[in-house]
Each structure stands twice: as C-alpha cells, then as structure tokens.
Write a structure and sequence with these properties.
Blueprint (H helix, E strand, L loop, with lengths): L6 H28 L1 H14 L1 H27 L5 H43 L1 H15 L4 H30 L4 H34 L1 H15 L2 H42 L5 H11 L6 H16 L1 H27 L7 H15 L1 H28 L12 E4 L6 E3 H16 L1
Antiparallel strand pairs: 1-2
Length: about 425
C-alpha cells in the first residue's frame, strides 16, 4: 500500500530535517574550531610554499607603473608597431625596468649601508661621552632648580645604566663560543635561511617578469573566471570593487614611496647644512617611517631626536624644528600634490584608520590600513547614496547642513528657511 503524506507529516519531516542539519553543522563547526591550530599550520605552510609567487606578484604590482612609463616613451618613438613589435617592446621595457630597479637598489645599499654602520658604531662607542656631556648641559641649565636637576640627572643615569646593561649582554652573547656541534648547526641554519631567501627572491623576480610581460592576459583570465562563477550583476560589483581597491592601493603606495624619498632627501640636505650628526642614519629613518601616514614622521623623529640629544642638545632642537617644518611641507604641499585624490579621506578618517588597523594588525595595519579603509569607506558611501537616490533625497553631504527634517508623508527634505516660511504661512492660516 502506498503511503500518503499529510500536512502534519510534512511539517514534522521538515522540522526533523532542520534539527538534523543544525546538529550536523554544529558538529562541523566544533570540529573546525577544535582544529584551528592545525588549520593555521596548514595555511602558514601553504603561504610558505606560495612565497615566491607572492613576492613576484608584489614586485610586479610595484613596478608596473614604471613599465607603463617606459612603454609610453617607446610608443612615442616607434609609431604604430606591429604585434610582434609590441611584444618586443614589452620584453625590452620589462628588462629595462628590472635592470634600473636592481641598479638603484645596489647603489642605495653601497652608499647607505656603510654610512649606517658607521653611524651606529659611532653611537655605541661615544655613548659614555655623550651622556656625560648631556648631564653637564642639564646641570648648567638647571642651576637655579637643584631638586628638578637632581631628578632629571637621576633619570638620565638610569637610562644610561639600562643601555650599558643591554650592550654588555650583547657583547657577552657575541663572546660566547658554542661547542662545535652547536656552531655547525647555527651556521648551517643561517646558510640555509639565506639561500632560501635568495632562492625565493630569484623565483619571485622570474614570476614578476612573466606577470609584467602578460599582465593583460592574466587580467582577462581573472575576469573570465569571475564572470563564469558569479551572476553578471555580482561579477560587475566584484570587478568594480577590485578596480577601486587597485586605484586606492596603487595610488597610495606609489605616491607614498615617492613622497618618502623626497622627504628623506630634503631631510638629508637640511641636516647636512646645519651640520647635525648622523645625517644619513637620521634621514634614512625619517624617510622610511614617512611611509606610515600621519604618525610616521613622529615615529621616526623621536628615536632620532634622542640620539642627537646625546650628542648636542642644541642641534637636537634644530632637528625638531626641521622635522616640524618638513611635516608641514609634506602634509600641506608635497603630500597632496603627489597623492592627489587617490585616497579621498579627511585627516580624521586617516587617523581613525591608522589607530584601528594599527591596533588590530600591528605594522601591516599601519601600512595598509589607510587604503583599505578608503575602499571600505567608498563602498559604504556608495551604498548610502544608492539608498538616498531610491528615496529621492540629495546625496551631497553639504546639502544636509541646511536640512531641518524630512517629511515622513511626502519624503521631501525641508530646509531651515523653508521651514520658517511654512511656519509663517500656517500661522497666517490659523489667524484667518
């Protein structure tokens, strides 16, 4: 006999299947959460295997603007080249881009690294003399305030004691001679690590050459996959978000690199003119930390000011004035000119992004937080504008400064002046 399902049976069957699904999903979620360390190890292992690919993609992303520049110059020289000519121009420009990059990096290492090493060595060897000079300077300045002078000198001596303890520990560590097995093991691991890094860099360089040579093909393949997997509307949204993120991140990083190089060079010139010590080291630190928006100049300036203070308090004051001037030039003139409108965030939101993402993700949050928040901010702004257009309300933020309220019946935005006129007309009607 054939069994017939009534409405109650179907209802209980659906309820049972739902409960069964909830139990299964709960067990799966528990198993996943219980194996998070294993999954983390697996993900890190996968990322380690993909490290050369990631290096190559990062190299290509940074160098593609230079490639486009060289290609534009080549196309101005060779008018309307054939398809084979275009491929030749692309490969030559890729090689020129990488050759110029490696040449500049080698020159930077050869010029800067010896100066940095010399500056660090000078700081270590002259610390005692500089601390004694600083103490004498404080005593001369605070002759009329012995209590405050005693407190300041005590703090300086405590800092110096901590510093000497640290340097003594490092010296003892360097003087310790391990046994032969440990020495061989350490040397072997160091050599293996160095060889692995060089290998990953070399493979990344080759990967970047392939990506730069066929960047249009890789872009087309990615779009093809997105349109094959997602509906057209969703795919358009994904490609739009990626395009916006590319504009934000590319404009930000390329602009900040150029901006930081200019600031580092200006800092070196000013420090050299005023004969401030450790000019190369200080300019290098200021230029590198300037990549971090808003707080970068101060993050780099504070340790540099302490180093200069130990050498000459007066020159430390000059250095602080120079950093303030450079920060104003960078924030009001140089930065806006180079970065243009690539970010589109006010100073408040830049500071908000740095604090939030820096607190969550550390150094990488400080570095990438601003362009990432700019993408999120743009997505939220577009969603809000779409809702407002659907309700036939203005999308320009400035217009809401003069809006008092929105009529819940008609959906019309009533401004303060219109409200006063409406109140006057209603008052006359009541008097009539």
């Amino acid at each position: 006999m054939k069994f017939k399902w009534n409405d109650d049976d179907q209802k209980y069957l659906k309820l049972g299947l739902t409960l069964f699904g909830v139990v299964v999903l709960s067990i799966l979620a528990y198993q996943v959460l219980n194996r998070i360390p294993i999954l983390t190890v697996g993900v890190m292992k996968l990322l380690d295997c993909l490290r050369p690919i990631l290096y190559g993609l990062a190299f290509a992303y940074v160098l593609i603007p230079c490639l486009k520049l060289f290609e534009n110059i080549a196309y101005k020289i060779f008018k309307k080249p054939s398809e084979h000519g275009r491929r030749v121009i692309r490969m030559v420009c890729v090689l020129v881009t990488w050759g110029l990059t490696l040449t500049l990096l080698s020159a930077l290492v050869m010029l800067v690294v010896p100066e940095l090493a010399s500056s660090v060595e000078g700081i270590i060897t002259n610390t005692t003399t500089q601390v004694n000079r600083l103490i004498r300077w404080v005593m001369d300045i605070l002759q009329d305030n012995p209590e405050f002078r005693k407190s300041i000198i005590s703090q300086i001596k405590n800092l110096y004691s901590d510093f000497t303890t640290l340097m003594s520990s490092l010296t003892n560590l360097m003087d310790m001679i391990p046994d032969t097995g440990t020495l061989v093991s350490n040397l072997s691991s160091g050599v293996i690590s160095a060889v692995s890094t060089v290998f990953h860099f070399a493979i990344g360089l080759i990967v970047s050459i392939y990506v730069m040579s066929s960047k249009e093909l890789f872009t087309a393949q990615t779009k093809k996959m997105v349109y094959a997997v997602f509906p057209a509307h969703t795919a358009n949204g994904i490609i739009g978000v990626v395009r916006s993120a590319h504009q934000k991140f590319g404009g930000f990083f390329i602009g900040k690199i150029i901006d930081s190089i200019v600031i580092g060079i200006l800092c070196f010139i000013l420090l050299t003119v005023f004969r401030i010590p450790y000019a190369v080291l200080v300019s290098f630190v200021v230029g590198v930390t300037n990549i971090i928006p808003f707080f970068g100049p101060f993050i780099g300036a504070i340790p540099c000011a302490i180093i200069i203070l130990l050498s000459s308090p007066l020159k430390c004051l000059y250095f602080i004035i120079i950093i303030i001037v450079l920060q104003q030039v960078d924030g009001n003139i140089l930065g806006p000119k180079i970065l243009s409108s690539s970010i589109g965030l006010s100073s408040f939101w830049v500071m908000f992004a740095i604090l939030v993402f820096g607190g969550l993700f550390g150094f990488w949050g400080l570095l990438c937080g601003v362009p990432l928040f700019a993408v999120i901010y743009e997505l939220i702004s577009e969603a809000i504008s779409k809702k407002l257009r659907h309700r036939r309300l203005p999308t320009d933020t400035v217009e809401y400064e003069s809006i008092d309220y929105v009529n819940s019946q008609t959906g019309e935005a009533i401004k303060f002046k219109e409200k006063d006129e409406l109140d006057v007309s209603q008052g006359k009607q009541k008097q009539g």
